[in-house]
Amino acid sequence: MAVRTRICLVATILALSLVGCRDGHSPAPAGPADLIFVNADVITMDDQVPAAQAVAVSGQTIVAVGTDQDLQRWRGPHTTVVDLDGRTIVPGFIDAHQYRVQKYADAGYADPAAAVDAAVQQGWTTLEELYADPGVLPELHDLDQAGRLGPWVDAYLPVMLYDAAGTSLGSWYQAYHQGQVLSPHVRVAGLIGFTDYDNATVLLWQQDALNAFLLDSARQGWSVALKTVSTRSLEMILRAEENLARVDPDAARDTRVRLEHALFITADQIARIKKLGLIPVINLNNPGQLVGESDVDQFITREPAGSYTPWRSLEAAGIPVANGTGWPSYFVDEPTGAPFGSPVHLLYQAVTRVGNLGRQPYPWLLDQTITVSQALRAMTIDSAYATSEEATKGSITPGKLADLVVLSADPVTAPVSQINDINVLLTMIGGRVAWCSPSARACPATATASAAAAPTTSLSVDPFVGTWSATDPTDGSEMSLRVSRDASGYQVTLTDTKARICGVGSGGAHGVPAEVQAHGNREGNVLTTDVTSLTCLAEPPTTERPTLQIVYTYDPAQDTLRDSAQDATWHRQPVAP
């Protein structure tokens, strides 16, 4: 039996008090929901009800999960209903190891709020700040008080510097306590320490001192995160935890210890991790992004064969595995696909072990890939477990926080080659729409009930549909573009205030207004259109049917179009209320 039970008694009682009887049906309504997502592909990460079609939200909380028909009884005259047209909802993603507030400038951001905002747009709803020292904690508090901190933040307080001496920071953290809420979005999640330095060429603890630290911390109720990147430092942690289990099993059972990075683990150590109930916090991006790093290649030769990044072996042992990005370590600006350190990119890296900028993994690394479903668990329910928050986060379950992410496609069923092109359409944090993609054309403003009756809206997620404007780069004329879609394909109307082709045809030197009608089809982020008519709005108007093809390419990062005719950049125009 594991020393630490998977879900502690207190968490179980809380969860049951929130959700009531779990018989596969939503509980009886206490009143109409504020918002209901319908016609969705819901991946709940709840083992009791793993899939659903609809989710109802009231205030900060998920109140019901089930079929569209089940959730009709939650609908009232002021309920906002969003038809997702088969798009996918997953629980909000949790980055279990990152430094966006402390190291935002390393990735080129002007301030921490900008880095955090970018994370929200990628689907992160909880950030675990792994080095919240006396300088970072006040900054987190101030950001939150100023309304500039959207996601939940779990702060880990360092007990030492990360240097070759393992310099102690003293007892400053004793001014706080485990689970303390510092502001509406900021919570103290535990302590952070380091066991090795310089690729584990230096060990920072003596065994007796580490034993004493973990025993003392557990007796004070602290959960502890410990950085370990070698089997030697991991062995010290395992021995210290085995000592704790012998000396004070109650203290061991009531706290959680995390193994940060856990790059090297032997089969024997995996078995002991499971027995002790420890939580590896892996980096799904590490196997690929460390390929070709000479110091890491040398490191691998020093460690036991087969012990490097054994993520599949951890999953096979039934160990809850959390995931952190390590952001901004190894940051690059990915030119295509999902951004560096984003949940979607990590899902792709979990199954391919592809590194930064498409760097291919060593073939032997593919023996330890994991599935998309396992990677989803690592970024949702298992990361919530790592901070003792599985009763309130990590799955789409009645009674939990309404932390939800809408994706353009289902990553579980999508071809592997297409996972990295999946878009985040909406991020909801505690029932509040924290971000909505410009390509999602009917985003609910919030899950709060409106004063007037709210009709069903459709979350149209086609990136091309809408109204666009551009300036012709050659003559400065203003152009507009309307794109719609029906069963036959895309209908495109382009107007130009000074079309050169019309100027030549009608004898004018500078062109006259023109309207171009076209029909097209889309493949991914490319819309290829064939012009069906060209009308020059001179006196008198003339209409031609030229043989002309115009290709529009969508840039999801900028939410812009580029056309092949004028090479103009088109910007989306806001939808009229």
What do you see in this structure?
The protein has 577 residues and is an alpha/beta fold. Helices cover 23% and strands 28% of the residues. The chain is built from 15 helices and 31 strands. Strands 8, 9, 10, 11, 12, 15, 16, 17 and 18 form a nine-stranded mixed sheet that branches. The protein has an eight-stranded antiparallel barrel with strand order 23-24-25-26-27-29-30-31. A six-stranded mixed sheet has the order 3-2-7-19-20-21, covered by helices on one side. Strand 30 and strand 31 (569-572) form a beta hairpin. Helix 4 crosses helix 5 (231-247) and helix 5 runs parallel beside helix 7 (267-276). It is elongated.
Principal-axes geometry comes out as elongated
Structural class estimated from helices and strands: alpha/beta
> Helical element count?
15
User: How many beta-strand elements?
Assistant: 31
- pLDDT average, as an integer? 89
How much of the polypeptide forms β-strand, as a percent range? 25-35%
Most strands sheet? 9 strands, mixed
CA-to-CA gap between the ends? 59 Å
Mind telling me the C-alpha Rg? Answer: 27 Å
Q: Uncertain spans, ≥5 residues at pLDDT below 50?
A: 1-25, 447-453, 504-509
Helix content: 10-25%
